[in-house]
Every structure is written in C-alpha cells, then in structure tokens.
Amino acid sequence: MQYSVIIPAHNESANIENQVREFITNLPCEVAEVLKEVILVENGSSDGTLGACQRLGRSYPDMIRVCTIPNGSYGEAIKHGMLVSRGTHLSILECDFLDATFVARSIAIFRANQAQLIVGSKRHPESFDGRPLKRRVLTALYNHVFLRVCIGYPGTDTHGLKSIEAGCARKLCEVALTTDEIFQTEIVLLAWRLGDKIEEIPVNISEVRAAPVTVFRRVPKVLNTVRELQRSLKRFAARSLP
Fold first, then answer.
1. Cα(102)–Cα(97) distance, rounded to whole angstroms?
2. 77-134 per-position pLDDT tens digit
C-alpha cells in the first residue's frame, strides 16, 4: 500500500503551515510507514496561501507536493488532487481538520478489504460535532431531507473527510458532472449508485476557525444542488434503501 493525502487550500495562509507541520510531525506509525505524499492543492487564493504551501514543500521536499489551480473551487481542488495522486489509496482532509486518526482507521479498513470509499461522518452516532448549532442543524437537514428523502441515499453524511481506493477515485472523477463544493457529495452518491462498498466511521470535530461560507449563503445553494445531483444520478439505476 502507498498512501496519498490531499489537502485543498483556499485563503488558508494564517493556519496552513502550522497545521500541516503538526500533522506530519505527529503521524501514527501505521500512517507514516505507508504515506507516499501530501498533496496541497492551492485554489484561487487571494492571500499568501500559495507561498505558505511552497514553503512547506521546501521543508518537506520528499513528502509534500504543491499544486495550484486558478479557480477558488473546493470541488475542483479535490478532483485535481485525486487525479494527480500517486498512491494506491488516498484520503481527502481539510486544512482545519487534518485528522491523522481518520487516516489510520481508513488504512486498517482498506487492508481488511472492507470498503472502497470511507466517509468520516459527522452524523455517525459515535461522532462528536462541536461546531455551532446552526451548522449542525444544516448538516442534519441536508443529509436527511435532501439526500435521504429526495434522493434515497441511506448514509448519514457526504461532506467532509473521505478515503478512497485510487482506482475508485479515478472512476468517480470520470463520471462526475459537477464541480465546486457539491462534487464531494456527488462522488459519494455515485459510488453508492455504482455499487461500490461505502463505510462510515465517526469523527470528532471542533471548529477552529469560522466557516469560509456562512450558513445563510449555503442555503440557496443547497436548494439548487439536489437538482444537479438528481441529473447526475439519473444516468445510473436506482438503488433501494436497505
């Protein structure tokens, strides 16, 4: 097994260097022994994020790869990282949530051949979600009302941390239609529709900085994303709830 970690970075100059250095310094042995690369994908930042990423690349030349794309798009950033990754398996993390425990648990699941895609679910019964109430409510409504009721997806969460077999990741990139933040939900739903084995594991999350997009700006987007997701899923046979 060779492992890639992908970290999208947009306007993260204040935090990314300390967060990434701490992540690499404190890797569990089971992660350190298989980690091939950490891919930082800077996307359309208007601050010093690219420079911070390049400094990290110089500090860890055998570990960190720096990519940059012109658009400030979370979805395009993770897609780019997935496509250029060189590992047999990969995890998608977030600058403010570099969870090495999630990566270690993912590695164990992959080694046991228990899943092709792993979702770190904030809605898992064993998870701790320390984000503000408004964000927790929006997550619950989005996953239950829009994804479960409108689309029929049986999982509890699609946003946030994910781990994927490299072959599965490339297949999902090829068939996905969306970009921007909705891409991370689409690839989970496509994996479900295509019959890939998905496993959810709990995460412990606390907000270390304010969300880059406010709840009120997210709501109008949510109302439009269901139609885009339904358009994508129509291409494949529906799956029934268990």
1. 10
2. 999 999 999 999 999 999 999 999 999 999 999 999 999 999 999 989 999 988 898 8
Burial class of residue 62 (count of CB atoms within 10 Å of its CB; 0-12, 13-18, 19+): exposed
Q: Does the reported pTM lie above 0.85? A: yes
3-233, superfamily in CATH? Spore Coat Polysaccharide Biosynthesis Protein SpsA; Chain A (3.90.550.10)
Ordered by start, the domain boundaries in the chain are 3-233
CB 55 within 8 A of CB 132: no
**Residue 200 contacts residue 124 (beta carbons within 8 Å):** yes
| 46, 100, 101, 105, 153 from 168: Cα distances, Å | 33, 22, 22, 19, 19
